[in-house]
Amino acid sequence: MTDFLRYDQQGPIVTLTMDEPARRNPLTGNSAVADFLRAIERIRDDGGVKAVILTGAGSSFSSGGDIKDMQRQSGGAVDGLQIRDEYRRGIQRLPLALFNLEVPVIAAVNGPAIGAGLDLACMCDIRIASEQAKFAESFVRLGIIPGDGGAWLLQRLIGLSRASELSLTGEVIDAQQALAWGLVSRVVPAAELLPTAQALAQKIAANPVHAVRMTKRLIREAIHGRLDTVLELSAAFQALSHQTADHREAVAAFLDKRAPVFKG
């Protein structure tokens, strides 16, 4: 699709591969954000896409921010207000786009996910890791802060204390520690990572597309919504769901003791 992000579609499943392995798939100093935004828009416009897998080419998932680009930002060539605007117009658009995408996204973390690379994995709905994966919220070691939403994302996945530990030390944890802390839902051998992600994506894609998308939306809204607000939204979504052909097919198939055939 582009120089940085490969877009591959097999039936209802799209695989996005960050493809700059020589630089460990950085998210700044290149076209990464623009490529992601175009891909997300393409997925949003394609009603046939039911699940997305995000992974990295080579030995890394993503190294996060590009160090050479940080030299430009700290060297006096640009002022603070310009840098602020670059963040708002650049990488900060990515968590918003992924948060609002109703198609589920599985991060298949094949190797180190560092800094913004870890935060990118946190923007996804499900994370599975290769045994070779490593994770670090490493901004503090470079004298900067998580400017891409990591302070909001990480604590919602692993809790305030553990998120604070990772963010304030910048230390690296391995895949098994990430599993123990709930950062990822499973760890598999490297050769099994993409097949595992594809099998999981197929399980998601087998369900009625409207139910999957509205369920993701409810989960996302529940992160910051009040119970009464989420219940009201649930009632509205449920009213729509009850009127769909796929729901009627699911009920009929259950009563007939046969496999349902969903048409979307």
Task: Please give a quick description of this structure.
This protein is α/β, with parallel strands linked by helices and 264 residues long.
Could you explain the architecture of this structure?
This protein has 264 residues and is of the alpha/beta class. It has two domains: 5-205, 2-enoyl-CoA Hydratase, Chain A, domain 1 (Alpha-Beta Complex), CATH 3.90.226.10; 209-256, Lyase 2-enoyl-coa Hydratase, Chain  A, domain 2 (Orthogonal Bundle), CATH 1.10.12. The chain has twelve helices and nine strands. It is globular. The mean pLDDT is 94.
Sum up the structure in keywords.
9 strands, Lyase 2-enoyl-coa Hydratase, Chain  A, domain 2, 264 residues, globular, 12 helices, three-stranded mixed beta sheet, six-stranded mixed beta sheet, 2-enoyl-CoA Hydratase, Chain A, domain 1, 49% helix, alpha/beta
Would you identify the CATH H-level superfamily of the largest domain?
A: 2-enoyl-CoA Hydratase, Chain A, domain 1
Order of helices and strands: EEHEHHHEEHEEHHEHEHHHH
Count of separate DSSP helical elements: 12
What would the principal axes of the Cα set say about the shape?
globular
Q: Pairing-aware structural class of the strands and helices?
A: alpha/beta
CATH topology of the largest domain: 2-enoyl-CoA Hydratase, Chain A, domain 1
**β-sheet strand percentage:** 5-15%
Count of the domains: 2
Major sheet: 6 strands, mixed
Number of strands: 9
- Ends apart, CA distance between termini: 27 Å
- Quaternary state reads single chain
Strand order of the largest sheet: 1-2-3-4-6-9
CATH architecture of the largest domain: Alpha-Beta Complex
